[in-house]
Design a protein that fits this description.
Keywords: Decarboxylase, Ligase, Lyase. With 336 residues, the protein is α/β, with parallel strands linked by helices. Helix content is 36%, strand content 24%. Bound molecules: flavin mononucleotide.
Amino acid sequence: MNKNILLCVSGGIAVYKAVALVSKLSQAGANVKVMMTASARQFVNPLSFQVMSKNDVFFDTFDEKDSHVIAHIDLADWADLILVAPATANVIGKLANGIADDMVTTTLLATTAPVWIAPAMNVHMYDHPAVKRNLAQLAADGYQFIEPSEGFLACGYVGRGRLEEPEKITALVKGFFSPKSQPLAGKTVLVTAGAVSVSMDNQHVIRTKANGKIGVALVEEAKALGANAFLVGEHGADIYELIVELEHYKNQHPDAFFIHAANTPTIEGTPKLSIEGTRAVTFGQEVIGKAILTVVSQDWIDFSDKAEVSGQVMVVTNAEQFAKSLWTYVLQGEAK
Ligand SMILES: Cc1cc2nc3c(=O)[nH]c(=O)nc-3n(C[C@H](O)[C@H](O)[C@H](O)COP(=O)(O)O)c2cc1C
């Protein structure tokens, strides 16, 4: 594999599994460095990670061993991929809120490498609305997840919350770096999703109908294909805010591929999104510029059974399946 993997270990009972993960990743040919939170060091001594990774283990932001570099920036730049495994509810909450008060969280904010988060916690913690909110925020920020599996938890409960097995995580990492499965690697994808509102006056808004499932599935599939994919705007976003946010993203990522899946209002006087300067797919919305593909459906896309792309019929009832089909179609077109 010959890739640089930074493993960030936070303080859950599953830290012992992270030691096995270092071993599996190293056997697969990865160069692994490990960073630990203070809580993680309560569970396993850093020496175990040092021996397994054959590298120093990092945990103190202010312990600058090499005066030529700042360690956390150096590691953030060194990594081809960062794994946070196990990811505690605490570290998830900090990252979702931009808090950088230790070496792990500081490095996570300093990196531009893809970051995969592997939550592991008690089933009730995982189901807590605050944790769900933070995970949703991280998903919207473009983070990928290695979902916890179900099973017997160390706390005595049975349910979702177990850190995925090291063999499985290693297989996902190998797959990620295999060129075949990553046709969107290095590409940025922007997607709008769901309902959009427009103000009529100080007291009234008009909002379109949409559930946002298609847009979210398109982002998830783009990520699975290796893209840096972002949801632009929120479900129910104001059209003016959506336009500003899209322009901001377009300035930051001038080569971005854009999928406009949000249902924008059609009432007179509503401003239109500009797709100029992007290769864009639209779903029949009025926009400024020309799309490379327009998906046609009888009803609004979120509520349709079928859609048509250049005469090809796609099933829409299963959002994930539709997203796979659409990306396959788009990538075939790009390859031509
Ligand atoms: C025995 C024990 C097991 C724990 N297991 C978990 C866990 O699996 N997941 C979790 O999110 N927190 C767990 N915690 C709580 C975290 O250690 C605690 O929230 C800590 O502040 C996390 O710090 P960190 O995110 O900086 O590593 C556990 C605590 C103890 C004492």
